[in-house]
Amino acid sequence: MLRKAYILSVIAMNVSAARRLAPIFKAAALAACCVVLIIFSQSCAQGAKNGIEMCINVLVPSLFPFMTVSGLIVKSGAANRAGTILEKPAKLLFGLDGCFAPVILLSLIGGYPVGAKGISELKKQGADTIQCQRAAMFCVCAGPGFLINFAGAFVFGSKRLGIIMYAAQVISVIIIGIGAKLFGINNKEYRFEAKNNNRQISFADAMTEAVFDAAKAMLSICAYVVLFSGITEIIRNVAENDSLNCSAACLLEVCSAVNLMSDKMTIEAVAFAAGFGGLCVHFQIFSALKCVKLNRLLFFVVRIIQGAVTAVITHIGLIAFPEVRPVFSSTQERLPVGFGTNAASGIILILTSILFLFSLLSLKRR
Fold first, then answer.
1. Most buried by CB count within 10 Å: which residue of 125, 138, 193, 220?
2. What is the CA radius of gyration of the chain?
3. Distance CA 166, CA 101 (A)
4. Structural contact between residues 253 and 280, judged by C-beta atoms closer than 8 angstroms
């Protein structure tokens, strides 16, 4: 007993000392970061420039319209009305209320932070916290604009390869969603009732609020991308090992990872990077979900699982379609603009507009 008490007291003393020294360690780490940025200022500046180009050419065109539509669907009340139609599939597959179904669809089409933005809006409208936490675990994936147009057509020179990776990503999201239902800590029945049902908001006001919120979220996303692109460029210039560079890029920022890994790693590794998302995407989602308390360690583990599932399904897809032969691109041309303006995007926006028109007609009849 005395020995046990002594060991516990030593542990307590060490923990207490660590807590007292924590501010010193943090200050030292920040000072070291400043020194690194000064020493490698040119590399950091080049990485930041690459990040800005990525934001302008890839992220803003492919994400901003969908983030706006996602917010508009929730703010106008269309998600609650559409939920009555999609309630059974959402509950059967994911154990979620029907109002989450449009957000899930938009996350599959819009890309990484779109689902988190929609979940945040639902939480503000009164959605159950447990259900929001569960949805946030799997409403995370790269959109078709990124995987098909950027990773597939531009990087690998094969749009069909991009389609295979995107299909693998969608299947992985469904598998993770079903797993979140089966292993959920709370599977109680819940019916979503919007807090602001009595608040009559016009379509114009909903559009204004949705655009403003999407612009704020987009600014935050771009800031993270620029920051992590700078860090990735510093690591790339310091480390001479390709595997280390690719691993660091995969951990930090997915756009740089796909570009860097395309001619150094297997296609399955690139699919893993897209499924994992990188810390840059994770921080974007945490920022969008401030009103939803997430277990960040669990979220990180789930992203690793999703990356692995995406890689396995991509491998199966490559076996099923062996005629797909990716051509690694060495072109120096600038990234094409408008990755979000594909056929799927147009169809979704048209269907969403029709849904809003019917919503307006139903409001006028009331």
1. 138
2. 22
3. 19
4. yes
